[in-house]
């Protein structure tokens, strides 16, 4: 199944060989690497070669590591073209099918079988088992995740803890300490913030992603260097509803190291500029079997919209009626889409979830590509894809 | 894009009305003073502190401040006679020369040189300084017994003029007991009539009169007791010496029999006495001289008293101060400028000036340097632009209280105050631990005491009113007289004032205290006897399982009480349980007050004197709030902290002039141990806030607003309350019409309850009108002092929590805008105030902004109504928790915070309102009696002396200044 490690062909390096798969059908054509054109044109070309002019498509390609990555704007299209070596393998899906979780990826579970293989195997699975055996991932609640694996140094880990609606405490303590940094002047001892204790049964412990003596480097995208223990404590508590901590694990052996399946190596993968979290959250899941085989706290099985509703905007407003007895009802005055919602925080989760999943999947198909960014920004996902990507690459998620 | 433009405009306009952040002046009494100096020619007073600050004061409004770079205590301050220079000696044995330099018509205090005697430290440690009347010499007595002569201001050592110990000891009479070791130089004094003669007093007791010109000893005075101080009488005929055994001696100068004291006395004798640390004798035009000395009390019975004894003829008084005496001097007046007119005493906690010319020696009230902390400050409240009428009435009430002060004007009159008159009358109210509220004139540079209100009279307290130890009984010896107002001992801590709210238009004042008491007071120009009506309010409202373990409530005096003119209480509300009042607000137009504690809040109608609303906010699972103000865990922590502080403090106070090396070592060890203990890992729990946290029900803020609470067409009075748990309650109030106000009830109905998701404490609630401006204060519009709020456009609610600022629409509460603070930089809102920034360019233009002080000590200005961060300035060190907690903002972009228990720092963010000292001190025209070289304050003769300065950190900077100076 390992198709992506090919000897470069003797043909002109200027041409990109494209193999496009839609359903059971393949199309092959080539593109000029130096002049790839725009995504719109490319999209039109795909519809043309497959003769499906009115079908809404999701375009994916296999990158050098075997990850299935989307093509939905000029940037990632160009990226795909430029990294094709020389074969560019495309996978097209009907949009409506994609919504039902028929394809996706998970960077973190690469060890078993590559995403690519999972996708390729997908028709077989379909034949064997109907897709409804396992609950849809969006019915699960995310607990934690590792995010931005590809833009962080390998020694760092960015962990997201989802406190919202949880009875479990976050359950960890931090302390002052010192760490050694390499500087041009040599080794330097600098003060740092460290995890000092994990509460048994707490969220932090249950994820297995944080450990005692991990150094905290960032909180929700903001560096903690130069900040006091109390300041960092306050920052973490203020972000507790959606806490993203970047740590330098004390134990570096368990790091996710790019295995170099595709021969590209870890360093090259960073250039994709995309968080595995986001692609996963949008594109769904490699396969149901894959989704089921990995622990629930690592998979990215949640609709993007849920995080937005997770924002701390859910202040509870109780309006007293004409009589003394207070009547609970939601404020429904949403004149602008960017306005935060006012809903009782005890509100049924499914209701909000579905609203947002329709929203994201239906009308704003691109927002997923930067879910971690837009989640934190809590603004309407910008339709300007290029800009969004840019900010993601420059600042990393979580930065405002 | 539009939003962006809008922000741009706001930024632009606010910048034009915002000044830069400046700390303008320090009010109050310097913390830990350590040295006192006075220049009779400049009429300026100088105080040095343990932290290395030097402060100069003249006539009210004339003040200067300097800070030594070294963080060492100032041990001595000496003005150069008849000059604008002064010399300071620090704990680290360095000498510093300061001058008052004119610049743009104003004087500035500048350090112009520094000097340290070179040599072995045991020998060259300076113990005595004499600024010679020639103005060119400085005589430095040292621990080794040598006297070094230094030329000033250049600090050039004149080695040939030094008076070495050998020179002196060669001529000591053989029979003198202390011949072997004279010890350090304790005192250096110049002969008032012959500047060539100085007396050198050695620690062992021997005094030598030395001729500077002839370089020889003229006379030896063989005192045998440890010497404490020496004083040369005005006519040069006698020398007074005071000693460690509590005795003083008078010696004849130039007499035949030099070895006999003319007179010797132990004034409080028989039993062992403490040392007389300083003695001064001053003649009067006619009549007996004044003899003043500090200390000398009988060791066993009054060894703990801090006394200065003044003897004039038959009058003998031991002035008994409440804190340690640092130093004193006497100001002299009269036709020949010889009569002592005022005694100025610097004690550890205050400056006391005693009028020596009025019968009974009354105290002259100080216009500055007032001890703010005479009882510890517990809260403060600032009111801007006081109407003249109220101002005068408060002043009049204060005048009644000041009857016991001397009528004499303030005797320290140096310099000219060139600051313009303050544009408005501002009042700062401080609440104190002893239940008093002090009213300060905060309009100008001098924080002047106007009036003091005591609330203790309303209650029965443990203290016996007749328990007055101050007045000595007839015939008591020593004849004590208590002086000074510093009194840190509170009779009853429950009396402590926690919240103050004054309505400047109606003169209604409400104050609330530690034991849940809320007093309503009204300004009355006459003294009146009245019974105060008390109303107990049960904030628990039947909440089960409560056990209050805190203090009991205060007992009200049932009998009518005589209240002096001023603010007189007419109603008291007592919260049950009697927890500390945490929020208080007053609406004088509606005649309502709202108050809150950790258990709930209430609304009280002070016209009908009944409570309108009681709301319990207590969470039944909140054990800490249930039990009382102090949990056991907390108190242990606190007591540990206190004991460490005590250790540290004792270490500081042990640091005396002659440091014992052993002690030093022990201290170093202790310090290391302390540091180690503090390095023990501190860890912080990371946990989201929950409704089960402690003190979520504590009421943090209360606010009255006339706004659109239920529908967008009818505005109604409303009460807003914010809690520690991030909850906001809004009540709609129904007030009867004016004619039925006295008999129909006021009602309150819960209209809205907002639970902020992030659950951070709500510290401020403001309603913004249709223009985005905050609603005016009650009665402000009625008095034509504010524009009526815009009731056409929709109102907005601004909720400030410790973590973020949120703007909600009204009447339908939905979030419109927000600004996050803690999530972004980890700082939390500690204090918040609304301010109006007037433009410095146009008279009528200005904007409202939110002033915010964070727990990191930074001041932010947040624009309204867009809640955008405009500027940020570092203001207070983040470790200074009490400073941050004490900060109070004015309505015009200024602020105050405590830099020590006794001092307020004033700062300004506004271009229009800056209160800072602007003053000029001119060099005195020398009219001395001697033929000394006359000092020239300005011009060439003074510049050349500065040139050969020692190499110092300062010198490069000074060179720049110097060139500029020469050009001028």
UniProtKB/TrEMBL annotation, chain A:
Keyword ATP-binding attached: no
Domain of life: Eukaryota
Keyword terms: Cell cycle, Cell division, Cell junction, Cell membrane, Cytoplasm, Membrane, Tight junction
Domain PDZ: 158-251
Residue ranges with Low complexity bias: 269-282, 359-375
Localization in the cell: Cell junction, Tight junction; Cell membrane; Cytoplasm
InterPro entries to which the protein is assigned, alphabetical: PAR6_homolog, PB1-like, PB1_dom, PB1_Par6, PDZ, PDZ_sf
PROSITE patterns documented for this protein: PB1, PDZ
Region (Disordered) residue spans: 256-282, 354-400
Domain PB1: 15-95
Biased composition (Basic and acidic residues): 385-400
PANTHER family the UniProt entry points to: PAR-6-RELATED (PTHR14102), PARTITIONING DEFECTIVE 6 HOMOLOG BETA (PTHR14102:SF4)
Name this protein carries in UniProt: Par-6 partitioning defective 6 homolog beta (C. elegans)
Taxonomic placement: Eukaryota, Metazoa, Chordata, Craniata, Vertebrata
Gene of this entry: pard6b
UniProtKB/TrEMBL annotation, chain B:
Coiled coil: none
Keywords: Cell cycle, Cytoplasm, Exocytosis, Phosphoprotein, Repeat, Signal, WD repeat
Repeat region (WD), residues: 423-441
PROSITE patterns: WD_REPEATS_2 (PS50082)
A Pfam family it matches: LLGL
Domain of life: Eukaryota
GO molecular function, one term: myosin II binding
InterPro entries the record matches: Lethal2_giant (IPR000664), LLGL2 (IPR013577), WD40/YVTN_repeat-like_dom_sf (IPR015943), WD40_repeat_dom_sf (IPR036322), WD40_rpt (IPR001680)
Annotated localization: Cytoplasm
Signal peptide annotation: 1-19
One cellular component (GO) term of this entry: plasma membrane
Domain (Lethal giant larvae homologue): residue spans on this chain: 265-362
Cross-referenced SMART domains: WD40
GO annotation, biological process: cortical actin cytoskeleton organization; establishment of spindle orientation; exocytosis; Golgi to plasma membrane transport; regulation of establishment or maintenance of cell polarity; regulation of Notch signaling pathway
UniProt record similarity statement: Belongs to the WD repeat L(2)GL family.
Protein name per the record: LLGL scribble cell polarity complex component 2
């Amino acid at each position: 199944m390992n198709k992506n490690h090919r000897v470069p062909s003797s043909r002109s390096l200027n041409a990109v060989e494209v193999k496009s798969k839609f359903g059971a059908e393949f199309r092959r054509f080539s593109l000029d690497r130096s002049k790839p054109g725009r995504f719109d044109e490319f999209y039109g070309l795909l519809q043309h070669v497959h003769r499906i002019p009115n079908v809404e498509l999701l375009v994916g390609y296999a990158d050098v590591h075997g990850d299935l990555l989307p093509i939905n704007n000029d940037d990632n299209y160009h990226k795909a073209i430029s990294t094709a070596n020389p074969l560019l393998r495309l996978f097209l899906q009907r949009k409506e099918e994609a919504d039902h979780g028929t394809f996706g990826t998970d960077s973190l579970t690469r060890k078993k079988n590559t995403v690519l293989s999972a996708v390729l195997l997908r028709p077989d699975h379909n034949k064997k088992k109907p897709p409804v055996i396992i609950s849809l991932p969006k019915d699960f609640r995310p607990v934690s995740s590792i995010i931005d694996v590809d833009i962080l140094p390998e020694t760092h880990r960015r962990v997201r803890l989802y406190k919202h609606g949880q009875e479990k405490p976050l359950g960890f303590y931090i302390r002052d300490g010192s760490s050694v940094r390499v500087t041009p002047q040599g080794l330097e001892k600098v003060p740092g913030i460290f995890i000092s204790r994990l509460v048994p049964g707490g969220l932090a412990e249950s994820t297995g992603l944080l450990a005692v003596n991990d150094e905290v480097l960032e909180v929700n995208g903001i560096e903690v260097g130069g900040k006091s223990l109390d300041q960092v404590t306050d920052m973490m508590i203020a972000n507790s509803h959606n806490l993203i901590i970047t740590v330098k694990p004390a134990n570096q052996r368990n790091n996710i190291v790019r295995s170099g399946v595709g021969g590209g190596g870890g360093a090259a993968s960073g250039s994709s500029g995309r968080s595995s979290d986001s692609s996963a959250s949008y594109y769904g899941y490699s396969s149901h079997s894959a989704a089921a085989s990995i622990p629930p706290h690592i998979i990215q099985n949640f609709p993007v919209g849920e995080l937005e509703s997770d924002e701390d905007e859910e202040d509870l407003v109780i309006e007293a009626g004409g009589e003394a007895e207070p009547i609970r009802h939601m404020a429904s005055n949403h004149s602008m889409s960017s306005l935060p919602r006012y809903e009782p925080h005890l509100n049924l989760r499914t209701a909000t979830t579905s609203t947002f999943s329709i929203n994201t999947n239906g009308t704003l198909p691109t927002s997923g590509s930067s879910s971690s960014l837009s989640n934190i920004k809590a603004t309407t996902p910008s339709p300007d894809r290029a800009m969004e990507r840019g900010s993601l690459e420059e600042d990393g998620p979580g930065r405002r | 894009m539009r939003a962006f433009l809008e922000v741009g405009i706001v930024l632009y306009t606010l910048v034009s009305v915002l000044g830069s952040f400046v700390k303008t002046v320090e009010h109050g009494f310097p913390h830990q003073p350590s040295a006192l100096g006075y220049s009779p020619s400049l009429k300026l007073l100088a105080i040095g502190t343990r932290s290395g600050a030097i402060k100069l004061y003249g006539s009210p409004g004339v003040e200067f401040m300097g800070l030594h770079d070294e963080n060492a205590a100032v041990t001595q301050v000496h003005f150069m006679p008849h000059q604008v220079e002064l010399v300071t000696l620090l704990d680290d044995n360095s000498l510093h020369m300061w001058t008052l330099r004119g610049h743009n018509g104003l004087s500035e205090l500048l350090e112009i040189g520094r000097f340290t005697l070179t040599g072995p430290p045991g020998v060259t440690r300076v113990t005595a300084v004499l600024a010679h009347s020639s103005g060119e010499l400085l005589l430095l007595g040292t621990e080794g017994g040598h006297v070094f002569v230094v030329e000033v201001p250049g600090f050039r050592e004149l080695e040939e003029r030094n008076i070495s110990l050998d020179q002196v000891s060669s001529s000591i009479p053989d029979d003198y007991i202390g011949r072997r070791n004279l010890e350090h130089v304790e005192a250096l004094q110049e002969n008032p009539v012959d500047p060539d003669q100085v007396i050198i007093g050695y620690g062992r007791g021997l005094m030598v009169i030395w001729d500077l010109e002839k370089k020889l000893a003229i006379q030896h005075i063989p005192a045998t007791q440890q010497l404490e101080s020496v004083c040369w009488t005005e006519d040069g005929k006698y020398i007074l010496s005071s000693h460690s055994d509590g005795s003083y001696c008078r010696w004849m100068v130039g007499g035949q029999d030099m070895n006999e004291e003319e007179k010797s006395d132990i004034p409080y004798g028989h039993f062992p006495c403490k040392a007389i640390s300083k003695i001064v004798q001053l003649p009067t035009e006619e009549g007996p001289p004044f003899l003043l000395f500090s200390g000398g009390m009988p060791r066993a019975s009054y060894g703990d008293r801090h006394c200065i004894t003044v003897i004039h003829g038959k009058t003998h008084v031991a002035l008994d101060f409440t804190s340690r005496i640092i130093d004193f001097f006497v100001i002299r007046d009269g036709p020949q400028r010889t009569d002592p007119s005022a005694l100025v005493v610097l004690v550890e906690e205050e400056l006391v000036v005693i009028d020596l010319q009025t019968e009974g020696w009354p105290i002259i009230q100080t216009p500055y340097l007032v001890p703010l902390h005479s009882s510890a400050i517990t809260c403060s409240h600032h009111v801007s632009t006081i109407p003249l009428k109220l101002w005068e009435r408060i002043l009049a009430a204060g005048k009644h209280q000041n009857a016991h002060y001397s009528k004499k004007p303030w005797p320290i009159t140096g310099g000219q105050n060139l600051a313009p008159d303050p544009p408005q009358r501002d009042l700062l109210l401080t609440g104190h631990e002893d239940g008093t509220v002090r009213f300060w004139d905060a309009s100008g540079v001098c924080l002047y005491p106007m009036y003091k209100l005591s609330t203790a009279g309303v209650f029965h307290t443990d203290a016996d009113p007749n328990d007055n130890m101050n007045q000595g009984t007839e015939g008591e010896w020593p004849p004590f007289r208590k002086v000074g107002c510093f009194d840190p001992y509170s009779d009853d801590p429950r009396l402590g004032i926690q919240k103050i709210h004054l309505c400047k238009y109606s003169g209604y004042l409400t104050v609330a205290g530690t034991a849940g008491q809320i007093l309503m007071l009204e300004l009355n120009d006459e003294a009146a006897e009245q019974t105060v009506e008390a109303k107990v309010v049960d904030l628990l409202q039947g909440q089960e399982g409560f056990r209050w373990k805190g203090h009991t409530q205060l007992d009200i005096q049932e009998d009518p009480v005589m209240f002096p003119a001023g603010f007189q209480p007419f109603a008291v509300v007592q919260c049950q349980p009697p927890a500390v009042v945490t929020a208080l607000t007053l609406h004088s137009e509606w005649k309502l007050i709202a108050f809150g504690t950790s258990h709930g809040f209430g609304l009280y109608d002070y016209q009908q004197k009944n409570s309108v609303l009681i709301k319990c906010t207590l969470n039944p699972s909140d054990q800490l709030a249930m039990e009382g103000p102090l949990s056991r865990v907390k108190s242990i922590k606190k007591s540990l902290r206190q004991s460490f502080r005590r250790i540290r403090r004792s270490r500081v106070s042990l640091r005396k002039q002659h440091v014992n090396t052993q002690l030093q070592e022990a201290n170093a060890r202790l310090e290391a141990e302390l540091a180690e203990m503090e390095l023990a890992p501190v860890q912080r729990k990371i946990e989201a806030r929950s409704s089960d946290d402690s003190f979520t029900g504590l009421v943090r803020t209360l606010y009255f607003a006339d706004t659109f609470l239920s529908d967008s067409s009818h505005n109604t009075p409303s009460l807003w309350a914010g809690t520690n748990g991030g909850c906001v309650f809004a009540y709609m109030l129904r007030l009867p019409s004016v004619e039925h106000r006295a008999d129909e009830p006021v009602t309150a109905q819960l209209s809205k309850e907002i639970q902020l998701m992030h659950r951070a404490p709500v510290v401020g609630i403001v309603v913004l009108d249709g223009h985005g401006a905050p609603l005016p204060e009650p009665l402000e519009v009625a008095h034509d002092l504010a524009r009526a709020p815009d009731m056409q456009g929709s109102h907005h609610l601004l909720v400030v929590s410790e973590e973020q600022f949120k703007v909600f629409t009204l009447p339908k509460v939905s979030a419109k805008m927000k600004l996050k603070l803690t999530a972004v930089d980890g700082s939390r809102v500690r204090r918040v105030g609304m301010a109006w920034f007037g433009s410095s360019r146009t008279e009528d233009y200005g904007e409202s902004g939110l002033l915010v002080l964070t727990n990191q000590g930074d001041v932010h200005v947040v624009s309204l109504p867009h809640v955008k961060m405009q500027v940020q300035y570092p203001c207070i060190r983040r470790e200074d928790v009490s400073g941050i907690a004490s900060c109070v903002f004015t309505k015009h972009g200024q602020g105050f915070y405590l830099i020590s228990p006794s001092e307020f720092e004033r700062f300004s963010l506004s271009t229009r309102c800056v209160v800072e000292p602007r003053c000029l001190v001119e060099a005195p025209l020398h009219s001395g009696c001697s033929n000394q070289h006359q000092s020239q304050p300005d011009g060439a003769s003074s510049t050349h002396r500065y040139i050969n300065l020692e190499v110092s950190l300062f010198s490069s900077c000074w060179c720049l200044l110097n060139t500029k100076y020469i050009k001028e």
